[in-house]
Specification:
Length: about 110
Amino acid sequence: MIRAARMAATCVGSLGGRVGADRRGGASRIWTRTVPAYLVTAIDTTGAGDAFSAALAVRLAEGAALDEDVEFACAAGAYSVQSAETVPSYATRPRLAALMERCPRRSAVGEE
């Protein structure tokens, strides 16, 4: 039996994240959305995609809503670019919550 993914998410850098899902009904039920990026000053982008992917994996494992998962992942990527070096730039949950609360975001684009 061939199985297809029901959901996909990707980091699109300074634009934010892109998410798509099959709402169990075929091609007419495909839903996609761009989750806007947090506007931060980037110092070192090394590891931003890794921060995004790790945060997304954690949230998916916890069973949160898909939009919230990608927003959390975008926050992790944004937080990570604000300082030099990779490991020290990864955030704790409280630091991500603070970033999500205080940082402006790009305007939403690409909803279908």
